[in-house]
Amino acid sequence: MKAALSIMIFDENRIRASIIEEGLREAGHDQVVVLHDIVGLARQIEIIGPDVIVIDIETPNRDMLEHLFQLTRSVRKPIAMFVDRSDSSSIEAAVEAGVSAYVVDGLKKERVKPILDMAVSRFKAFSRLQQELADARSALEERKIIDRAKGILMKSRNLSEDEAYALLRQTAMNEKKRLADIAQSVVMAAAILGS
Amino acid sequence: MSFIPTGIDQGSAGWQSGGLTGPATGRSQGTRLVRAGFIPLVDASVLIAAAEFGFAAREGIQLDLVKDVSWANIRDRLAFRQFDVAHMLAPMPVASALGLGSNPSPSIAPFSLGRGGNAITLSLRLYRRMQEMAGLAGQEDALTNAKALKLVIDDMRKKGEALPVLGMTYPFSSHNYELRYWLAAGGIHPDTDVKLVVVPPPMTSDALSAGAIDGFCVGAPWNMVAVSRELGRIVAVKQDIWPSSPEKVLGTRPEWAEQNPETLSRLIVALDRAASWCDIPDNRRDLAQLLAEPRYLDVPFDILHPVLMGRFTIDPVGTRRIVPDYLTFHRGGANFPWISQAQWIFSQMVRWGQVAYSPESQGQVSSAFRPDIYRNALGSRADIPAGDTRIEGNAKGDGFMDSTVFYPEDISGYIAGSAIRSAAPKTTGLVDL
What we know:
Shape of chain B: globular
Largest sheet of chain B: 5 strands, mixed
Number of helices of chain B: 18
Shape of chain A: elongated
Structural class of chain B: alpha/beta
Strand order of the largest sheet of chain A: 2-1-3-5-4
CATH class of the largest domain in chain B: Alpha Beta
Largest interface: A-B, 34 and 27 residues
Organism (chain B): Phyllobacterium endophyticum
Low-confidence stretches of chain B: 1-7, 10-28, 427-433
Number of strands of chain A: 5
CATH architecture of the largest domain in chain A: 3-Layer(aba) Sandwich
Low-confidence stretches of chain A: none
Protein name (chain B): ABC transporter substrate-binding protein
Number of helices of chain A: 7
Distance between the termini of chain B: 29 Å
Distance between the termini of chain A: 77 Å
Oligomer: heterodimer
Region (Disordered) (chain B): 1-26
CATH class of the largest domain in chain A: Alpha Beta
Number of domains of chain A: 2
CATH architecture of the largest domain in chain B: 3-Layer(aba) Sandwich
Main location (chain B): membrane
InterPro entries (chain B): NrtA/CpmA_ABC-bd_dom
Mean pLDDT of chain B: 91
């Protein structure tokens, strides 16, 4: 039986870190430590001596870690995640997804790859969720703008709600623009003209 | 794929490597997309100006700039083809040639992005103590300042105080070597008399303010930002240590350079023109305005313009300093990738125990800088040197602060002549998997 791998996750985004942690635990890894703050990171790495460090590629603190590894005189020197250079497509996928990792020298590829794959897929799922959330927010914003435009038209043109909506829609079709864009112009025009 | 297919390079007929003798201007056959990573620093100016003021477009290149947050990312994204070229620290291709660092993927430097820009800043508290102990009036030179810091460190030792913590940017950086050079010139051992840590440049002022560090060596404009926030005191600039000291380079993968020789040639021509434009003082207002934008440095124009003009306040009490060539983008062969400078970087890696000296390693280093590609792109010109190596530090006005001279053929002797240096490492670098 091989010794269990000790894995450290460094991510300032707590939600994403816990999503990855959960994935790793589900996959049977029980030695997972999550860190969010650069303060004390060096000491933690020294104490825990992780086999694998998964780190968000968008943190400027990677350079600090590299310095730390440069200074380390220990045999278990971590190297950047590129366990197997021949497998460059999976490395590219990781970089693209925003995952970076350090792996202690000498660790077998088969043992590390599932961990990286897991981190990559969870990072991707997280960005997808964020995108969906952003889309939902902007859809809600658009609804609000359209409602305001309707209100302005109802008041200034003395229209019913349905008529105001129909006017907006017709204008959007004529101008080949999105309904929300037309509504935005109505709101802006009203603000400028003070109606 | 990153490329807009246009029928040039990458196996297309009609252009042979090494056949280009003059500038590529006017030979455009189509637009090529080149993705370039950069770190928000003033010395990314040449790349930014090339992309924004039409120099790249004129050579048929669509230069897509991607802002990044760490040198490790720059290295990895270049290695794994997210970037074609990148704004890199000059020591990075040297480190990769030696197999040093976490991902020593091969990279080469065919163009240098200019000279200058770095400075060493200490916390006001530390500098005031130096003033008190050494009787500094405020206009002293870099060496005097280093010696004053040595006095303070001796005093700290005697009183059992914690030794100063100094920040720099990356283990393989001009900042690391310049900070160490300055400390050692003042009699301070960078390994035992201070603690060196890495701090990302945009965080230096906050780290100083929080007391996490007592000083740092980084590029423009971050030293000036610390002074303007009344946190720090500039005690040395790069010119004080060695004016010709290599700084940032254009880095690329050797295989990209081989597969895209004409694109690289055109890019070098575009960067050469952009660098020349950046050097004209009247253009620096426009340059500062562009750099100030959030997508680039996101630093106020009022800080960037004086930095570009080499006029800045070094002490919050108002002490001013003018450094005429604080940032040189083109003049005096500033873009030429001297092999002797790659070797000087190597000598510093040896001096500070990052790698052991061997004639083989010195040979490997010589392939990191590629003046041949530079010459190929620009042809012969009066300002392009005839040789690829030279004796460094013996030209008038270009000396090292400790008056040593660097002979590339005698690196062992050069290192042996340094009283302060680190022990040689046991191996010649990391073993890759």
